[in-house]
Amino acid sequence: MLGHHYTHTFLETAVASVNAGCNLELSYGLRNNVFMHIPQALAMGNITLQMLRDRVRPLFYTRMRLGEFDPPAMNPYSSLDLSKVQSPEHRNLSLEAAVKSFVLLKNVRGTLPLRARDLSGQRLAVVGPFADNPRVLFGDYAPVPEPQYIYTPRRGLELLGANVSFTAGCSEPRCRRYSQAELVRVVGAADVVLICLGAGVDVETEAKDRSDLSLPGHQLELLQDAVQ
């Protein structure tokens, strides 16, 4: 609220926040934060002790329900170790979730899904800055990926045994430099073309918003050239 000029000081912000019902400040990593001024606000009579208790109660109620204060022996998660991370069971569940969460807006003549048995003798072109760049496939707040478990579109299609050609067209999502001639060459020799475009964390994250939803840089030009 201070950054939006709704208040002028951290003290004012703390009072306004608590009065509005806010009971949690995400201030990790900050040397100075808003809610550290709550004792001062309480001493000045801007907020009451009962109000503070009302704000704190749901926080601790939730922590209790989560078992945070239980003995370790009562917590089923205490027995988990790193062997569970990227276990086959969890990877299969992630794959199932990914497959079931795709949104297909249009499927002319049943083009999708691509099946390995239908790709024999077909020439596939995989193009775009998201076609074979593992780094840009993960969004904001994603965990640190393990390279051996990352399958880019290019890598996944090559596993099908198809004849795959590739060009990024742009080296990164901002697509400031676009290799049109290379794209036209690769696409022109293909039977099936997959175009992988988007934004990624290089373009937008929390606190780094965009004013429109247009494709970055030359990506739209890349798409139009591939279609033509």
Task: Explain the overall architecture.
- This protein is mostly helical and 228 residues long.
- The protein has 2 domains: 10-74, no CATH class; 86-226, Glycoside hydrolase family 3 C-terminal domain (Rossmann fold).
- The chain has 7 helices and 3 strands, in the order ααααβαβαβα.
- It has helices at 10-20, 38-43, 49-65, 88-101, 153-158, 180-188, 219-227, and strands spanning 123-127, 163-167, 192-195.
- Strands 2-1-3 form a 3-stranded parallel sheet.
- Helix 5 (153-158) links the parallel strand 1 and strand 2.
> How many individual domains?
2
The number of helices is 7
Q: What share of residues are in beta strands?
A: 5-15%
How many distinct beta strands?
3
Give helix and strand order, one letter per element, not per position: HHHHEHEHEH
The amount of helix comes to 25-40%
Rg (CA only): 26 Å
CATH fold name of the largest domain: Rossmann fold
Query: What's the main sheet like?
Result: 3 strands, parallel
The largest beta-sheet arranges its strands as 2-1-3
Low-pLDDT stretches: none
List keywords for this structure.
228 residues, elongated, 7 helices, mainly alpha, Rossmann fold
Give a short synopsis of this structure:
This protein has 228 residues and is mostly helical. The protein contains seven helices and three strands, in the order H-H-H-H-E-H-E-H-E-H. Residues 103-226 form the Glycoside hydrolase family 3 C-terminal domain.
Topology, element by element:
Elements: H1 10-20, H2 38-43, H3 49-65, H4 88-101, E1 123-127, H5 153-158, E2 163-167, H6 180-188, E3 192-195, H7 219-227
Parallel strand pairs: 1-2, 1-3
Pfam families: Glyco_hydro_3_C
InterPro entries: BXL, GH, Glyco_hydro_3_C, Glyco_hydro_3_C_sf, Glyco_hydro_3_N_sf
Organism: Erpornis zantholeuca
